[in-house]
Design brief:
Order of helices and strands: HHH
Number of strands: 0
Number of helices: 3
Largest sheet: none
Helix content: over 70%
Strand content: under 5%
Radius of gyration: 56 Å
Structural class: mainly alpha
Low-confidence stretches: 290-299
Shape: rod-shaped
Mean pLDDT: 77
Distance between the termini: 44 Å
Amino acid sequence: MMTTVEVGSEFQMQQMLVDEAKSYLTPVREAAESDMRTVRAAAEARVSAAEKKLATAEESAANSIEMAHLTVTKGKQQSKITIEKQLVREIATIDRHRLTSKEQAKVNGKTEERRVLAKQEFDRQEAEARATAEKKQELFCEQLDSHLISVERVANLTKTQMIARWREEKKKAQSMMAEAAEKGKQALLTAEQDLTVKTITLQHLKQKHDAAELALSKLKVSTAKRIKQAKKWAAAMVKHPQQNMQHLFSQAKKRMKKMQKEMRQQEEQVSAVTNMYKVGQEQEEAEMGFSAELVELSI
């Protein structure tokens, strides 16, 4: 069974542990908040950079597509003009040949059938020239449209890739913040649980300490009563007859020795409590000094 001195010493030591746990809570909370701010800033920076890249990619894609449309439109127009000019020259050549053929037919006296055949041939050449020009225009337009589709595909693919990267960065940022929040939460929870356990232990020790103090107080009262009774016995001894004086004196002497022994024990307990309190203070000062040295070393 623990003595009053031991209970008091353990109570003081536990009180120091509780105070230390309380003082530790604030740095843990501040560290968690600081880490969260740092992680949030880094996460937001990653997302912001991804958003800027996405915006640049979208703008670049839009510019590329717009430029491709303008180029294709202009190319079709220029191609049409060029092909039409070439067709005009070919038709003019055919018309010259047609005219020459007519003149030669008059001079040579060709029959109507041959003139019809010659006309049909020139008409066929003209129709073929027009058809060829139209096919050239269609083929060139198809090539330009194919180029435009390729440009649009590349631009959209780049945009899609940048959107995927932005979403990935956003997901990573959310994961970073969630991890930091969970880490801070666990650190704070651990510190709070430690404080709770130490506080409960302190409450139990306080109950023991209060009970010990009450027992010591009762012992002092009981001792005071016994001393008072002994004094009464000593006074009564003087009043007894001479023949009983020696016997009564012997009994009183024994009682006085017993009471002196109890008083010495009480004084020793009181002295022990006092010394233990001083030792507790010295230990607390030493531990605080040691904690300060650790903090300086950690810095």
